[in-house]
């Protein structure tokens, strides 16, 4: 069914649900995930759980933004914290100096991050591969140096604290963040699967070939940098106001590496992979706090083992086992089916023994 | 002041040089951007600390470097080589490896600062600067190690093969060089160089499980500055960044905050004008 979505018609929606969503394990999981996020407060309003979920959603958006730039376009950024931290600081300073509300300063911070994204993206026109990664890595570290040099303006090592809260209650903040997260994710997902996303894929695979067929790769690379930086900045601004502090930690090397770990763990160049990776790893790290000393050790071991056996990431590794493509019409099918749901071709051809 | 910069810069160059050469070998030949490289250096320093309580300096140093060599080769064979096609995966596997080493060290030795007694205590005057004799020894050691590594790479058939693979993998394979054999040697040699750097640093620095973070950035910057795949470039990059660091720490107020930042700033400036680094080759485009 490729007809336009007609969700206002109930029979159509039910049919769509049954044949296009529930028929595939991956889509069912995605639906359950969204429902879980939206309905979670009905199950529990424990402030700690809400806090963990809110932070996870923020970081998942951050990881997804990394994926658009590095997974799709192949411009591996090792300095994504630059956009994340810069937006947090910008929002904090704008709020302090001009007295604007977070509803205004966070988008402004994200726009500044977009500008920074284009600025960082400019060298990408000449650099490639590890050279580019190293240049992106330099930006957050240079900024950290500057922040320590001008402690009066930036708060130095302690950062700027006492930022205005996002909402009145934990619940309000939760729904705000989850709402922004889901909408941004929808946008990133649509972009990644559009014609533009196709160019992103192609640039990663073979930039020279893309240029050969007349595509302005410079424009698309800068676009990837700008969009990715915008959403990283959005996540960074929300994060700063949620924790009510914009500190140098948000620019640290660790914070640049985090989205890389989550995204690769989930599976790059998928958008949903980084989200899954974050929702698996971030709460896990929280749970592991019961054994504080072994926490990072267990984390590192888990990553080593999982990556060794599912090198393409958890989501792809699992989906490959749960769904298979019809050999004739290329439609995805659940692993339980014997014939393709679209064209009726048998999916498991038994090998004929001679 | 000038002579202090000169002497300290040289000592630091020696350490960074060993690290950068090892990193460049691993990247150039096995195509692994090994972010755990300086974790090997940390592990070697702690290994020395551990074995020194039980035996003399020479056997302890030997055991520590062999231990690191073993860890590196095992990690390469079991984890990294099977994943070579997935570049991003290799990247985070090396990060996880570095974290793992750090956490194991943290668990075994705790987060306290540890120190290794100097092999040669005392100070001498060089150009009117008081220098620890240990630092001069480290410089000498670094010089000898680098010369030996150079002799190996330049003088032997195996070294020739390794350099060829670093320059152009496909051409090297075409003339019959075994990529996997060169990879094993390069990874081993790279980790061994990192271990030796750790041994040289151990008696001069305080040991702590996070000591691998700061040199990692400098080494990355040095190798990229010189041009990936170029071994002399890596050494030159290390010297440039070591001196830059010493100059900043000595001359700029508040310079200690900026030491890594300056290394990276130099890197960005060089790359803007020469996108393939100082000695990198622009033609060997791998697609």
Automatic annotation (TrEMBL), chain A:
Pfam families: BPD_transp_2. It is found in: Cell membrane. The keyword Cytoplasm does not apply. Its main location: membrane. GO terms for cellular component: plasma membrane. It is a multi-pass membrane protein. InterPro entries: ABC_transp_permease, LivM-like. Keywords: Cell membrane, Membrane, Transmembrane, Transmembrane helix. The chain crosses the membrane at residues 21-42, 48-69, 76-94, 100-122, 134-154, 174-192, 222-240, 260-282, 294-311. GO terms for molecular function: branched-chain amino acid transmembrane transporter activity. It comes from the Bacteria. This is Branched-chain amino acid ABC transporter permease.
UniProtKB/TrEMBL annotation, chain B:
GO terms for molecular function: transmembrane transporter activity. It holds the Pfam family BPD_transp_2. The keyword Acetylation does not apply. The keyword Transport applies. Keywords: Amino-acid transport, Cell membrane, Membrane, Transmembrane, Transmembrane helix, Transport. It is a multi-pass membrane protein. Belongs to the binding-protein-dependent transport system permease family. LivHM subfamily. This is Branched-chain amino acid ABC transporter permease.
């Amino acid at each position: 069914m490729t007809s336009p979505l007609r969700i206002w018609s109930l029979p159509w929606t039910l049919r769509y649900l049954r044949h296009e969503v529930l028929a595939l394990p991956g889509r069912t999981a995605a639906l359950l995930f969204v429902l879980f996020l939206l309905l979670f407060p009905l199950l529990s309003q424990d402030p700690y759980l809400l806090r963990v979920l809110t932070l996870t959603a923020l970081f998942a958006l951050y990881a997804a933004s990394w994926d658009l730039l590095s997974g799709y376009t192949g411009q591996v950024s090792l300095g994504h914290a630059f956009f994340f931290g810069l937006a947090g600081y910008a929002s904090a300073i704008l709020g302090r100096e001009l007295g604007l509300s977070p509803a205004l300063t966070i988008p402004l911070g994200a726009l500044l991050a977009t500008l920074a994204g284009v600025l960082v993206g400019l060298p990408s026109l000449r650099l490639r591969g590890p050279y580019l990664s190293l240049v992106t890595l330099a930006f957050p570290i240079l900024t950290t140096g500057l922040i320590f040099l001008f402690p009066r303006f930036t708060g130095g090592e302690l950062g700027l604290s006492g930022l205005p809260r996002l909402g009145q209650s934990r619940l309000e903040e939760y729904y705000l963040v989850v709402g922004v997260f889901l909408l941004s994710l929808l946008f990133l997902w649509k972009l990644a699967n559009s014609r533009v996303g196709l160019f992103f894929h192609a640039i990663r695979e073979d930039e020279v070939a893309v240029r050969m067929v007349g595509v302005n790769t410079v424009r698309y690379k800068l676009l990837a940098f700008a969009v990715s930086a915008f959403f990283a900045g959005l996540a960074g601004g929300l994060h700063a106001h949620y924790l009510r502090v914009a500190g140098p930690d948000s620019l640290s090397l660790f914070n640049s590496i985090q989205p890389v770990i989550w995204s690769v763990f989930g599976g790059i160049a998928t958008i949903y992979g980084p989200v899954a990776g974050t929702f698996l790893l971030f709460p896990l790290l929280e749970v592991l706090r019961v054994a504080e000393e072994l926490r990072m050790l267990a984390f590192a071991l888990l990553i080593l083992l999982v990556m060794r056996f599912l090198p393409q990431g958890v989501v792809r590794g699992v989906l490959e086992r749960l769904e298979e493509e019809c050999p004739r019409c290329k439609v995805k099918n659940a692993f339980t089916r014997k014939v393709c749901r679209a064209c009726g071709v048998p999916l498991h051809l038994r090998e004929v023994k001679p | 002041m000038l002579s202090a910069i000169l002497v300290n810069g040289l000592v630091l160059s020696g350490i960074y040089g060993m690290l950068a050469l090892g990193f460049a070998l691993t990247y150039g030949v096995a195509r692994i951007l090994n972010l755990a490289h300086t974790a090997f250096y940390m592990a070697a320093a702690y290994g020395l600390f551990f074995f020194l309580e039980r035996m003399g300096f020479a056997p302890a140093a030997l055991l520590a470097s062999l231990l690191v060599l073993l860890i590196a080769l095992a990690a390469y064979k079991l984890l990294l080589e099977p994943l070579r096609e997935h570049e991003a995966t290799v990247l985070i596997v090396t990060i996880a490896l570095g974290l793992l080493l750090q956490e194991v060290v943290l668990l075994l030795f705790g987060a306290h600062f540890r120190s290794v007694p100097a092999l040669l205590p005392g100070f001498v005057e060089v150009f009117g600067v008081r220098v620890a004799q240990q630092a001069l020894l480290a410089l000498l050691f670094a010089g000898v190690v680098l010369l030996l590594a150079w002799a190996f790479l330049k003088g032997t058939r195996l070294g020739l093969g390794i350099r060829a693979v670093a320059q152009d993998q496909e051409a090297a394979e075409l003339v019959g060089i075994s990529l996997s054999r060169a990879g094993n040697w390069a990874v081993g040699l790279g980790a061994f160089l990192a271990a030796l750097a750790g041994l040289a640093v151990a008696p001069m620095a305080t040991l702590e499980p996070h000591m691998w973070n700061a040199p990692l950035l400098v080494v990355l910057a040095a190798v990229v500055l010189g041009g990936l795949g170029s071994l002399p470039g890596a050494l030159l990059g290390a010297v440039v960044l070591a001196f830059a660091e010493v100059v900043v720490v000595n001359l700029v107020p508040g310079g200690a905050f900026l030491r890594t930042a300056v290394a990276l700033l130099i890197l960005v400036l060089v790359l803007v004008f020469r996108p393939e680094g100082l000695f990198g080759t622009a033609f060997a485009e791998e697609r």
